[in-house]
Automatic annotation (TrEMBL):
The keyword Amino-acid biosynthesis applies. Catalyzes the stereoinversion of LL-2,6-diaminopimelate (L,L-DAP) to meso-diaminopimelate (meso-DAP), a precursor of L-lysine and an essential component of the bacterial peptidoglycan. The gene is dapF. Keywords: Amino-acid biosynthesis, Cytoplasm, Isomerase, Lysine biosynthesis. This is Diaminopimelate epimerase. It comes from Geojedonia litorea. Substrate binds at residues 13, 65, 75-76, 170, 188-189, 199-200.
Amino acid sequence: MTHTFYKYQGTGNDFVMIDNRQSIFNKKNTKLVAHLCDRRFGIGADGLILLESHDTYDFKMVYFNADGNESSMCGNGGRCITAFAKHLGIIQDKAVFEAIDGLHHARIEGDLVHLQMQDVSDVQHHPGHVFLNTGSPHHVQMEQQLDVLDVKTQGAKIRYGQPYNSSGSNVNFVSKISNDIFSVRTYERGVEDETLSCGTGVTAVALAMNYTGETNMNKVTLKTPGGDLKVSFEKSNDGYRNIWLIGPALLVFKGTISW
Ligand SMILES: N[C@@H](CCC[C@H](N)C(=O)O)C(=O)O
C-alpha cells in the first residue's frame, strides 16, 4: 500500500515524518523504520518520527533512530515535529506535546522553533568530560582540533567503551570560540555516525560549558556542521531549568512510498 511521508530537517539533522493519527504505522517493525531511513534503499534520514493523537495535549511524538529502534528524546526532531504539526493544521504557533521524556512546550517564530527541554539536575563532571542526560544521554568533551577530528572513529570508541557499553551514549566534541559561542560535532548513538547536528547534544554542551565555567552566560550559540542553534537556560538550586533549544526546522519535501 502507498503512504504519504514528509521529510524535515533541523540544522541538517533529518527525519522522515509520518502522520500516524490513524495508526497506519506498525511501531514494532524495526526493519521498516531502518529501511525508510536508509540513504540508498529508502528515503534517507537520521531518524523517523511518528506524529500521533493525544487525548489531552496537541499531539504525541514517537522517535526512532535510523537503526530502526525507538529511542530517547530527539531535540531537533521535537522542533521539526512542531513545524510538521503546524503544516498539518493541528496547531498555530504554539504547542504542548508528549514525548518519551515527558511534556514539551514549543513555539514557532518564523523559521525558528523554540522547544522547551526537561529540567536537568544530574550533571556529572569527570576528568576530561561531562556526562548528563538532556532527554538523551550525552558525553561532552573539549577538543583542540575539532575541524580535523575523526568523529565517527573517536565517537564510536567512547560510545561503546566503559562506562557506557552496549546501552551507549551520544558523544559531543566541543571547541570554544568565545564566552558564548562553541563549535560542536556529535556522534549519534543509533545512527552510529556523525550527524550534522544534535539538539539534545547541543543542549548538553551548553549546560556542560556553564557547569564547568567555560561560559558564565545563560544563552549560548552552538555552531554545528548543519548550522547554528541557541540554547538558553536558568541555573536552579540543583541544576538547570527553563531550558530552551532554538533553531530552524524546515520541510524539505513530501512524497509517497509503499510498505
Ligand atoms: N538527534 C537527536 C538525538 C536522537 C537520539 C539519539 N540518537 C539517542 O538515541 O540517544 C537530537 O536532536 O536530540
